[in-house]
Amino acid sequence: MLAFPNIKINLGLSITEKRPDGYHNLETVFYPVALEDALEIRTSPNADRKFTLHQHGMEIAGNPEDNLVVKAYLLMDKEFHLPPVEIHLYKHIPSGAGLGGGSSDAAFMLKLLNDHYQLGVSEEQLEVYAATLGADCAFFIKNRPIFAEGIGNIFSPVELSLNGYQIMIIKPNVFVSTREAFSNIHPHRPKYPVMEAIQRPVQEWKDTLINDFEASVFPQHPVIGEIKEELYHQGAIYASMSGSGSSVFGLFAPGFVLPEINWGTDVFCFKGKL
Ligand SMILES: C[C@](O)(CO)[C@H](O)COP(=O)(O)OP(=O)(O)OC[C@H]1O[C@@H](n2ccc(N)nc2=O)[C@H](O)[C@@H]1O
Ligand SMILES: Nc1ncnc2c1ncn2[C@@H]1O[C@H](COP(=O)(O)OP(=O)(O)OP(=O)(O)O)[C@@H](O)[C@H]1O
Fold it and tell me: Whole-model pTM?
């Protein structure tokens, strides 16, 4: 059985407070975008080990046991005693990009196992399992535009459609550690709450919809801020870093001819439609 885990972008990201458990409360709107990995599971009844992970495409750091798809499988295996599986993961989503690629793989693995083995787990329960694997994971269960609070796992509906808009996502060859990015933040209440800013026309987001990580990440990695500037220069209606970086996305009007930009070598570039 095959699935295509996609990415999220953050439309606005306010880090509002540090929690006693060391994590941070935040406010953001998650929006799914069709930049995808491919994930397949096959039952392997006679295998002498519970899982075998075959990786293809971009390399990811770490041992197979550290891979979030394996953690997702082991979590479900503990609850439901699953048969051994062969896992094929084709990585196309860049890591350390703030696009939630690993989180998406994990959430899609939970959904795949639930569907394939007819486990009957509700979406709400899958969200609870997902949240134990990563703060971003729960979003990918329902995988539709949503306002998120808490550590990113408390959801409220949001009236927002960017259908027809075009997107460019650029990721320079710079790795930003999510943990380190959070440690450099001074949490505060935003001047324009994300939920309010998002209701305004997209043309006004430039001045009201802020990603708090930009203030600390741009000075450390000026190339990321330069990419954002360039996207505006090239006609983006709104541009922002996603998550804790290092990718930057630009939203362009429907019908706009997306620019051909030579970003240089080692730069990942995605163009698509919302
Ligand atoms: C920055 C975002 O991408 C915004 O969507 C997410 O908040 C990051 O979520 P994530 O990558 O799933 O994060 P995790 O893998 O759960 O956590 C990585 C590290 O980031 C920090 N962390 C993460 C999420 C959060 N709400 N507060 C935090 O302080 C913690 O130090 C944690 O050890
Ligand atoms: N399936 C996976 N895909 C990518 N990275 C994974 C995976 N499993 C574990 N990881 C580890 O997680 C780290 C971050 O991966 P991810 O692709 O989620 O980054 P990110 O874009 O920073 O995500 P986020 O938006 O959640 O901060 C990688 O350095 C890698 O070691």
Answer: 0.96
